[in-house]
């Protein structure tokens, strides 16, 4: 065992199981992360719309009651989009051959980028139908997203999935299982980057606190699109950075492409996570530029 490595905590993926006749009810950490993330996000939204001083002169984009209605749409968008995103981006061949497996969400397999697309579509449909200011609504949803990201990555860690590449750093973790211990060139016990925790800290805590501070203390919500732009750019950067430490996706890696690039130029390339983050980076910087331009025009007038 490497002297500087940390052992994996003795925590299983299930919180508890209850047998009711022939049926077993199991609560998993991943499911709890989704539930708590949605509830915390909902409460952040409600608390934010109640503070009229945070918003432009036109007011908050939603009422607390409308947030409750939107939450149903968000849940559907997260589940359907997250599952279909995983199917299309990461396991297309398998699910085309076994389409009924797509419905088995409880077995795992969700994509953030797919879930983000699902939430975006659901929010757009709801916002257009209700004639809401879409940029301010996007700002509100962006503000509420980091807690779910943080909890989801913590659940990934507990589930012993999406671990990082082999590492000799003092905080490297010895993840259990044959797959985690299969490290080319390492004959001893293999320790890896806890890349799930890197993402939890960057996408969840750091980005989340920055958004809350700028929204509640620096008045960024009064410039529609600014908070959403920062969220998109911040997540895109954080995810692209952590991809440098994550274990390559097995379905994309081979002998000639050990890093698992989906776009490759010689020895350099981009992973699927980085490719999917590029549109978020572009949209984020675009919204920030538009928000800054709108703010400058408003100041000049």
UniProtKB/TrEMBL annotation:
It comes from the Bacteria. A 1,2-diacyl-sn-glycero-3-phospho-(1'-sn-glycerol) binds at residue 153. One of its GO terms (cellular component) is plasma membrane. PROSITE patterns: LGT. Its EC number is 2.5.1.145. InterPro entries: Lgt. HAMAP family: Lgt. This is Phosphatidylglycerol--prolipoprotein diacylglyceryl transferase. It comes from Thioclava dalianensis. The gene is lgt.
């Amino acid at each position: 065992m490497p002297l500087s490595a940390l052992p994996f905590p003795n925590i299983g993926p299930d919180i508890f199981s209850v047998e009711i006749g022939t049926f077993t009810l199991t609560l998993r950490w991943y499911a709890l992360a989704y539930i708590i993330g949605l509830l915390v996000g909902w409460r952040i939204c409600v608390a934010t719309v109640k503070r009229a001083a945070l918003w432009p002169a036109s007011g908050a984009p939603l009422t607390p009651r409308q947030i409750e209605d939107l939450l149903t749409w968000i849940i559907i968008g997260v589940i359907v989009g997250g599952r279909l995103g995983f199917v299309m981006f990461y396991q297309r061949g398998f699910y085309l051959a076994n389409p009924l497996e797509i419905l088995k969400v409880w077995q795992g397999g969700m994509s953030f980028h797919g879930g983000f697309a699902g939430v975006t579509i659901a929010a757009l449909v709801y916002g257009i139908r209700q004639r809401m200011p879409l940029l301010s609504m996007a700002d509100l949803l962006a503000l509420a997203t980091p807690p779910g990201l943080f909890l989801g990555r913590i659940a990934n860690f507990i589930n012993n999935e999406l671990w990082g590449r082999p590492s000799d750093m003092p905080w490297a973790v010895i993840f259990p299982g044959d797959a985690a211990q299969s490290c080319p060139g390492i004959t001893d016990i293999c320790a890896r980057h806890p890349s799930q925790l890197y993402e939890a800290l960057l996408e969840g805590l750091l980005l989340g606190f920055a958004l809350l501070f700028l929204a509640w203390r620096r008045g960024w919500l009064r410039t529609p699109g600014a908070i959403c732009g920062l969220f998109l750019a911040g997540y895109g950067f954080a995810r692209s950075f952590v991809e440098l430490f994550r274990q390559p996706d097995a379905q994309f890696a081979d002998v000639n492409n050990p890093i698992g690039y989906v776009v490759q130029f010689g020895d350099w390339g981009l992973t699927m996570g980085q490719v999917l983050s590029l549109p978020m980076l572009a949209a984020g910087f675009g919204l920030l530029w538009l928000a800054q331009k709108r703010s400058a025009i408003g100041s000049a007038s």
